[in-house]
Design a protein that fits this description.
The protein contains six helices and 19 strands. It is α/β, with parallel strands linked by helices. The chain has a six-stranded antiparallel beta sheet with strand order 11-10-13-8-9-12. The protein has a six-stranded parallel beta sheet with strand order 17-16-15-14-18-19, sandwiched between helices. It binds flavin-adenine dinucleotide and FE2/S2 (inorganic) cluster.
Length: 335
């Protein structure tokens, strides 16, 4: 069967797909590496849309499907005829090489608030790749759980650097394979395998508009990296940060927000607490509700960057669309 991949900028890539081969496997066999992570229909990273042709889907997590008609997951999709698939990104974002794995040592691991940890890794020098941590703010790395085939994605919270430092903010999920290991077993000096950088959730530096960054749950790390970059570049673009948590005790330490406000004088921040008493410097409600209030008062509609759990991202997208923000001004990542 022939599979045609169509990128958003209308580049057509044709590949052969064997019977019982997934589109993801066929693409990789042809030297094309669409975004993917779990390879098992669970994470939604390989979401795309079928435009023409027939297919079946292996069992998968329904919630991982991207919104829209003929939603598919490349890692679960088995063509039944020639198939044309629209990918949700441009050709430039479609790697033609596999992303290498590297080794990194745990340099620091300490609590960040009561329900998250800050993990700092240092890449080990590599003969071909050197030592630098080269990435764009907003991108993520995959980290392997030692001794298993489990891999999890974590957004980088720091800035690219020469000494190979990778900083992550990781929420502790009850019963979580990776976060549980971090909480109970991991220690300074442990070696981890990391792969990346990956992802297209990055800042549109060409836009002249104000920015509104909305984060929920564990979705703060990429926004932190973006804001740190604005501070490092002395970027004076007006910027608003809305950070939503379920309860006030889930909030990240206030020092992180203080650091950002000091480094970026034009930054305005709002902590939205959904349940219980919001506490000092916080408002009651969801991040989407706070965004709705912000957009109602905004003169020109800002660019919106949103990162967090799927339901929170959907709520924010709905608010942004209702306020008239065009799709081209909305950037999002579901965790
Ligand atoms: C692109 C990307 C970037 C990400 N960046 C970050 C990041 O910067 N920081 C971060 O903390 N996480 C991030 N995540 C989520 C992360 O990859 C893991 O899914 C998360 O840490 C849980 O992994 P685990 O192995 O600890 O739990 P698992 O073993 O995968 O899950 C254990 C149980 O908890 C449930 N569960 C999983 N995640 C959550 C959740 N968030 N809330 C409630 N229940 C949950 C599962 O359904 C399961 O029942 C990112 C995900 C993606 C796709
Ligand atoms: S790679 Fe995770 S759903 Fe396909």
């Amino acid at each position: 069967m022939k599979v045609t991949l169509l990128t958003q900028d209308e580049v057509r890539l044709e590949l052969a797909c064997e019977p019982a081969q997934t589109v993801l496997d066929a693409a990789e066999a042809a030297g094309i590496y669409p975004l993917a992570m779990c390879r098992d229909g669970q994470c939604g990273q390989c979401g795309a849309h079928a435009v023409a042709g027939t297919y079946s889907m292996r069992p998968h997590n329904l919630a991982a499907l991207p919104p829209g008609i003929e939603s598919i997951l490349l890692c679960s999709c088995l063509p039944q005829s020639d198939l044309t698939i629209s990918l949700p990104y441009d050709d430039a974002q479609l790697p033609r090489h596999s992303v290498p794995s590297r080794r990194a040592v745990i340099e620091a691991l300490h609590p960040a608030g009561t329900s998250a940890v800050s993990l700092i890794l240092r890449l080990q020098a590599d003969t071909t790749l050197g030592q630098a941590a080269d990435f764009l703010p907003g991108q993520y790395m995959e980290i392997s759980l030692p001794g298993t085939s489990i891999r999890r994605a974590y957004s980088l919270a720091n800035l690219p650097n020469w000494d190979g430092t990778l900083e992550f903010l990781i929420r502790l999920v009850p019963g979580g394979a990776f976060s549980g290991w971090l909480a109970q077993v991991a220690k300074r000096g442990d070696i981890l395998s990391v792969r990346g950088p990956l992802g297209q959730f990055t800042v549109d530096e060409t836009s002249p508009r104000a920015r509104c960054l909305v984060g929920g749950g564990c979705g703060f790390a990429p926004l932190l990296s973006m804001l740190r970059q604005m501070a490092a570049f002395q970027d004076t673009t007006p910027v608003h940060l809305i950070y939503g948590v379920n309860r006030s005790e889930d909030a990240l330490p206030e020092e992180l927000f203080t650091e950002l406000r000091e480094a970026l004088p034009q930054l305005q921040t709002a902590l939205a607490v959904w349940h219980g008493t919001p506490g000092v410097n916080a408002v009651h409600g969801t991040a989407a509700e706070v965004l709705a209030a912000h957009l109602a008062l905004a003169g020109e509609l800002p660019d919106i960057y949103v990162c967090g759990p799927p339901k929170m991202v959907e709520a924010v997208l709905a608010v942004a669309h209702r306020a008239g923000v065009p799709d081209a001004q909305i950037f999002f990542e579901r965790l």
